[in-house]
Amino acid sequence: MLADAFHRLDAKKYFVQDAGARRAYNGFSMSSRLDFIKTILELAKDNSGNDLFISELINTSILDSAYQLQDDFRNKISHTATATERQQINLIKTYQPVVDAILSDLDFLANYRMVRIPSLHNKHGNLYYRMEVYIGVVPDMLEEPLTDEKITKIDSEHLAILDADNNALDLYPMYQRLASDETHHETHVCFFKQRKAKSLLLEGESVQGAFPVNLNGYDEFELFQKKILDKMPDEP
Questions:
Q1: Residues with Cβ < 8 Å from 186, sequence gap 6 or more?
Q2: What is the DSSP string of 161-186?
Q3: Integer Cα distance of 125 and 163 in angstroms
Q4: pTM: predicted TM-score of the whole model, two decimal places
Q5: Can you point out the beta strands (E) in 135-234?
Q6: Radius of gyration of the chain (CA)
Q7: What does each C-alpha distance from 159 to 170, 172, 233 come to in angstroms?
Q8: What is the largest CA-CA distance in the chain?
Q9: Cβ–Cβ < 8 Å for 136, 126
Q10: Which of 20, 59, 102, 164 has the most CB within a 10 Å radius?
Q11: Sequence spans of domains, the chain
Q12: Residues 1 and 37: beta-carbon distance below 8 Å
């Protein structure tokens, strides 16, 4: 949703009034992040969700389920003494249906692909593009004829989501392929966790290793966030 707000959505229509939610990426508050998503989804109802890149989100109940996990499950676990094994088993039994409902609600994500498009080439007089498709962390390599040039607008180093019509949502800098000292110079898929303004860093995490990494693109993030931080000049 943050990638959609940064790259596609009309900043005037999708302005998030609550300052904490609007800046939720500056910390780890799950409540603020859910409030950001809630606001975007509520505003998107005016156009039946068609403004959203993943328009199916408008017809799900995942937000209610996420708030339930936040309020009843996470807070209970995080703010009490360590639960006994039996208590933990009972918690899993109680909340597993909620998690299963979220996964069921998100079945439609199978219609989207997370990809990187590193190159175009000529073959038998026709243009083809090579595409890395990420299902898990190890990409499958595909080669397809170029029938729609809009797919070429994604930077060759960026990860993106493609829908069934090859419309693309750039995920940079929220998702990145990263090779650094932290990954021992192996290429990892990494995702954004929080912006650290004092140290001018984007903190992320490796999907493969579940360890912290510093992402690229802090300056680009600063430019993108200006779109969603302040009211437009012609607003009161």
A1: 179
A2: EE-TT--EEE-TTTEEEE-STTTTT-
A3: 27
A4: 0.84
A5: 139-145, 160-162, 168-170, 175-178, 188-196, 201-206, 212-215
A6: 20
A7: 6, 7, 32
A8: 67
A9: no
A10: 102
A11: 2-110, 113-161, 175-216
A12: yes
- Pairing, β 175-178 against β 168-170: unpaired
Q: What is the pLDDT along the chain (236 residues), one digit of tens a residue?
A: 999 999 999 999 999 999 999 999 999 888 999 999 999 999 999 999 999 999 999 999 999 999 988 888 776 666 566 767 887 888 888 889 999 999 999 999 999 999 998 887 787 788 888 889 998 777 888 887 877 666 667 888 999 999 988 888 999 999 999 999 999 999 999 999 999 999 999 999 999 899 999 999 999 999 999 999 876 545 44
Q: How far apart are CA 210 and CA 59, in angstroms?
A: 31
